[in-house]
């Protein structure tokens, strides 16, 4: 039966996350963007919501909740509506947890998942993007070569969120031309984490370049062991997460611009009384809804274990464009005021542009 | 629970519609485009057979998806299929139980029968409150005078079958919207004449006519809605709002029609490319895609976006949730998406696209109507804008 109603449980989670986004994230996001720091207290509060750990099996110390991409998509939109940089920080451990949960060997699950069941935020991350033009997740320059009982990793990565504080990093590398994941623990020789990156947006999120120079990991650290991983599915889970986050960012900008347009008076009436402004807002509202529903469908397919490459890719590309247009209009509707950092629309505009770059930086 | 799975019954109904479209619509599609006012008698008879499958129209997600399939077959022929149409939708939305029974019964009988709706006049289209057709009460009758244009299926409803037309007329011009009421005029009523049958850009198998009402007398009971609202109160626009509520039900259906035409073009493009050995590489990063792949993917996402909005609007209606905003959103998006997708298809296919040897150019012409009738894209955008801003029509003109 076709339905667009989240379950009661999903609605409760959405309400809870929305409340957190409103009460916590929205209070400090501008400051965080300026300072580049997110208060640890906020991260811990978010951790307490159990968004990352809830789906870890009881045997590994978790709550044993159902793993649902769809629920993840609902959460990702609300968090990103609060603030994208914080959303990515809060969900960052999922970049490690979810691939292990879905594709890890029993040993990998037992060894690594309990780390994320504690009361405190535990950082972990994944390294996918590479600092070059023509980056393609399925044609990585970073290589993994088997050597006896170890894998030797070589290459450079960038946009690795929280790399410096992470206990473990899931490094994606090409093994005989196929992308596979490799678990690299903190302090492994040959792993060098460079200085924190400086980006146009998501400035509160600490991202790093890292270099792998003959970095050796035991062969047991290959994600999924001998079977390897279904990288395509991971990529699709990332695509829908980012699409949902794009919806959240677009919605933030749209709502702000809408309220501004209703109160800003020019030529004797609110600027929203002019079709030139009203139609921009209406079109944005339509596109936000359309993108959200497309993300839902792709997520639903992933939950059904269907191949959602087409749907996830389409919604990701669509969302990239949509969020750019939506946030651009946010700035445009505020005019000169939109360009001033007293208003948040310029922040969302900078964040919006990032989605075309963020492959693999979030996952649900 | 959010779900995108159709039930086996729904799937079967949609597949049956697709099969019908493939077998009985596509083969005659070009012929009735080129022979504009010729009646597709055989096709109409075939369509009557569909009633056992739940008919051409209906409420709910499966019904809308069947409309998509029929319009994938041929949008013009789909509009020529017998059924209550927009007139029926208005009766259903505004009529009393007795009226629904009395007026809609005929559509269940063995003879083909059509319903039409007459709103637009020569001097007003989107500005429906400006209509000048009048209905004056004389004892137990209403006397209707005026001229209606662009009446879809008007000829079939009034001349070729025992159908009906829902006519919008004012009972008090000075009352504006509050004075506007819907009246049912049945086929064979003296004083109503079918005039000019239009020649159109597309959907040529659908008849579009002018109806002239010259002292057309109908029973008092043919005013739609409860008898109590027949008093004219200038502040009471409930009747008008009810009229507009009809559109909440029909706009998602127009969206489904647009989506059907769009998919016809999209499928044709993809099949043609496949024959040439070109496969769309979905998982590739943006910078590695060819311009052609990006175009096709853009067309596909436009289709998906429109379809999702349409499904949501229809689903809300089936759940009896108010869907005024969502139905207009679906209509705006689908009208525009179908327009763009079909135009792009003609462009991509080059000589194959522009030639009348194939149907792509026809689909481009057919698609355009969806961005116009049942409220132009702009009017629907205005509806969306007012809703999201919570503005009245005075605050946003």
Task: Outline the fold blueprint.
The complex is a heterodimer of chains A (364) and B (397).
Chain A: H1 8-35, H2 40-48, H3 69-82, H4 84-91, H5 94-103, H6 106-112, E1 125-127, E2 143-147, E3 150-161, E4 168-175, E5 178-185, E6 191-196, E7 207-218, H7 231-263, E8 265-266, E9 269-270, H8 275-303, H9 309-334, H10 336-339, H11 345-354
Parallel strand pairs in A: 1-4
Antiparallel strand pairs in A: 2-3, 3-7, 4-5, 6-7, 8-9
Chain B: H1 8-34, H2 41-48, H3 61-73, H4 75-80, H5 85-94, H6 97-104, E1 115-118, E2 134-138, E3 141-152, H7 154-158, E4 164-170, E5 180-186, E6 192-197, E7 208-219, H8 238-275, H9 291-318, H10 324-349, H11 351-354, H12 360-368, H13 377-389
Fraction of residues in helix of chain B: 40-55%
**Inertia-based shape of chain A:** globular
Number of helices of chain B: 13
Largest interface: A-B, 53 and 43 residues
Element pattern of chain B in H and E: HHHHHHEEEHEEEEHHHHHH
Q: How many separate structural domains of chain A? A: 3
DSSP E strands of chain B, number: 7
> Termini separation of chain A (Å)?
24 Å
Q: Low-confidence stretches of chain B at least 5 residues in length (pLDDT < 50)?
A: none
Question: How would you describe this protein?
Answer:
- The complex is a heterodimer of chains A (364) and B (397).
- Chain A is an alpha+beta fold and 364 residues long.
- Helix content of chain A is 49%, strand content 16%.
- In chain A, the strands form three sheets. In chain A, strands 2-3-7-6 form a four-stranded antiparallel sheet, with no helix packed on it. A three-stranded mixed sheet of chain A has the order 1-4-5, covered by helices on one side.
- Chain A is globular, with a radius of gyration of 20 Å.
- Chain B has two domains: 1-81 and 237-397, Butyryl-CoA Dehydrogenase, subunit A, domain 3 (Up-down Bundle), CATH 1.20.140.10; 91-232, Butyryl-CoA Dehydrogenase, subunit A, domain 2 (Beta Barrel), CATH 2.40.110.10.
- Chain B has a four-stranded antiparallel sheet. A three-stranded mixed sheet of chain B has the order 1-4-5.
- The longest helix of chain B is centred in the middle third of the chain and has 38 residues, at 238-275.
- The model of chain B has no long low-confidence stretch (mean pLDDT 92).
């Amino acid at each position: 039966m076709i339905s667009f109603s989240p379950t009661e449980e999903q609605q409760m989670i959405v309400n809870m996350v929305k409340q957190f986004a409103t009460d916590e994230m929205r209070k400090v996001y501008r400051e965080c963007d300026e300072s580049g720091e997110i208060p640890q207290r906020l991260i811990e509060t978010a951790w307490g919501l159990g968004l990352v750990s809830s789906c870890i099996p009881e045997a590994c110390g978790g709550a044993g909740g159902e793993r649902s991409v769809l629920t993840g998509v609902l959460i990702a939109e609300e968090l990103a509506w609060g603030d994208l940089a914080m959303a990515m920080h809060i969900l960052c451990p999922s970049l490690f947890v979810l691939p292990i949960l879905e594709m890890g060997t029993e040993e990998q699950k037992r060894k690594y998942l309990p780390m994320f069941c504690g009361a405190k935020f535990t950082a972990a991350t994944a390294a996918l993007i590479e600092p070059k033009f023509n980056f393609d997740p399925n044609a990585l320059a970073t290589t993994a070569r088997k050597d006896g009982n170890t894998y030797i990793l070589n290459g450079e990565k960038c946009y690795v969120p929280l790399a410096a504080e992470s206990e473990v990093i899931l490094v994606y590398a090409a093994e005989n031309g196929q992308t596979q994941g490799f678990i690299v623990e903190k302090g492994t020789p040959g792993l060098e984490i460079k200085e924190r990156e400086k980006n146009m947006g998501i400035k509160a999120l600490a991202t790093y370049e890292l270099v792998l120079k003959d970095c050796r990991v035991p062969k047991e650290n290959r994600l999924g062991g001998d079977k390897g991983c279904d990288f395509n599915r991971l990529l699709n889970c990332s695509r829908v997460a980012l699409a949902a986050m794009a919806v959240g960012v677009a919605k933030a900008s749209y709502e702000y611009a809408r309220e501004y347009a209703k109160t800003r008076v020019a030529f004797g009436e609110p600027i929203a009384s002019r079709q030139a402004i009203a139609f921009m807002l209406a079109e944005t509202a339509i596109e936000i809804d359309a993108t959200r529903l497309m993300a839902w469908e792709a997520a639903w397919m992933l939950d059904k274990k269907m191949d959602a490459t087409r749907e996830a890719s389409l919604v990701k590309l669509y969302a990239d464009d949509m969020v750019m247009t939506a946030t651009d209009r946010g700035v445009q509707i505020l005019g000169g005021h939109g360009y001033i950092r007293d208003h948040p629309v310029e922040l969302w505009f900078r964040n919006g542009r990032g989605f075309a770059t963020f492959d693999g930086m979030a996952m649900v | 629970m959010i779900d995108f799975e159709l039930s086996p019954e729904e799937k079967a109904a949609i597949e049956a519609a697709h099969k019908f479209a493939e077998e009985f619509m596509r083969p005659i599609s070009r012929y009735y485009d080129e022979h504009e006012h010729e009646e597709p008698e055989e096709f109409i008879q075939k369509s009557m057979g569909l009633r056992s499958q739940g008919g051409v129209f209906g409420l709910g997600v499966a019904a809308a998806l069947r409309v998509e399939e029929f319009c994938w077959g041929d949008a013009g022929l789909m509009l020529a299929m017998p059924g209550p149409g927009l007139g029926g939708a208005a009766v259903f939305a505004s009529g009393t139980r007795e009226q629904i029974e009395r007026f809609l019964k005929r559509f269940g009988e063995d003879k083909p029968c059509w319903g039409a709706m007459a709103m637009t006049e020569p001097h007003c289209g989107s500005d429906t409150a400006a209509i000048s057709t009048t209905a004056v009460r004389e004892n137990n009758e209403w006397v209707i005078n005026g001229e209606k244009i662009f009446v879809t299926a008007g000829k079939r409803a009034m001349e070729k079958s025992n159908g009906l037309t829902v006519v919008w007329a004012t009972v008090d011009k000075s009352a504006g919207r509050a004075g506007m009421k819907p009246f049912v005029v049945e086929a064979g009523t003296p004083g109503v004449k079918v005039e000019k049958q239009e020649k159109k850009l597309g959907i040529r198998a659908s008849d579009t006519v002018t109806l002239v009402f010259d002292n057309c007398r109908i029973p008092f009971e043919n005013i739609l809605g409860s008898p109590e609202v027949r008093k004219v109160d200038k502040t009471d626009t409930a009747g008008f709002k009810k009229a507009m509520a009809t559109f909440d039900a029909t706009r998602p259906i127009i969206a489904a029609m647009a989506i059907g035409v769009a998919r016809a073009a999209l499928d044709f493009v993809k099949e043609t490319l496949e024959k040439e050995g070109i496969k769309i590489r979905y998982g590739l990063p943006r910078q590695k895609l060819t311009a052609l792949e990006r175009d096709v993917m853009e067309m596909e996402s436009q289709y998906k976006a429109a379809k999702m909005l349409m499904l949501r609007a229809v689903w809300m209606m089936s759940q009896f949730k108010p869907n005024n905003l969502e139905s207009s959103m679906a209509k705006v998006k689908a009208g525009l998406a179908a327009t763009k997708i079909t135009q792009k298809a003609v462009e991509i296919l080059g000589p194959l696209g522009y030639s009348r040897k194939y149907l792509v150019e026809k689909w481009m012409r057919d698609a355009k109507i969806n961005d116009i009738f049942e409220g132009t894209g702009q009017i629907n955008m205005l509806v969306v804008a007012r809703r999201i801003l919570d503005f009245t029509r005075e605050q946003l003109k």
